[in-house]
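**User:** Everyone, produce a chain:

**Assistant:**
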Amino acid sequence: MEQLTERFGGILGRLGSGKWRRFVIIAGIAAIALLFLSTVIPGRSQQQETGSFTEDASALEAELEKRLTDIISQIDGVTSVQVMVTLDCTSERVFAEEVKSSSSGDSLSSENSPALSGSKDPLEKSVILPRVRGVAVVCDGAENILVREKVVNTAARVLDIGVSQVFVTN
């Protein structure tokens, strides 16, 4: 402990007194405070990102259900509509890759590695939204075969899925 006091005393003694000494002490305290805050306040973790993907999928399901309910309720003969949309999976991120090629003599080799942005995070190329797995529609008026066919075809066209993935009942 005495060595530490002597060492800091020597450094502070070289700075002299006055403005420079005060400036160095304040800058040191600020640096220590920033280091402390960076450990106390965590950055975005992988778990938080996964959670946001799940929230994104739930939000997408809710938006699709609302829009499909709105359009189906406008079909003649349909009243009181409820829609449930299920998605295949959550969103998928596609990251850019750097390809490093090298050739020596007759052999050619390449190495793929993620392209990094300035903050050492992988560079995101695109986000693939989840695909719709199926739709269930409960509506009054579905006992009429023509109304049911209109509802099935509308849901299939709006969501770009096959008619076999749409179930309609009353």
User: Anything to note?
Assistant: Helices lie at 2-15, 19-40, 46-72, 145-159.
